[in-house]
Design a protein that fits this description.
mainly alpha; 3 helices
């Protein structure tokens, strides 16, 4: 058993198959371990370097609400 609320690697495999990358990465909140294809969304905008179109933002909002 890992740390409290730590997700198993299989979870990230599911995210990779079921999601799409934005600017070459998946967003992750409260990242415990750095992964090359996931970016910690709780950083500065310079660290994140993300530019989303309004349609992409609406899509992300819909995903978060569900």
């Amino acid at each position: 058993m890992g740390k409290r609320s730590e997700k198993p690697e299989a979870f990230y495999d599911i995210v990779r198959r079921a999601s799409y990358q934005t600017n070459g990465f998946f967003g992750e909140c409260f990242q415990r371990e750095a992964r090359p294809d996931f970016k910690n969304l709780y950083g500065t905008m310079q660290e994140i370097e993300i530019e989303l179109t309004s349609e992409e933002l609406r899509g992300l909002w819909r995903l978060m609400k569900d």
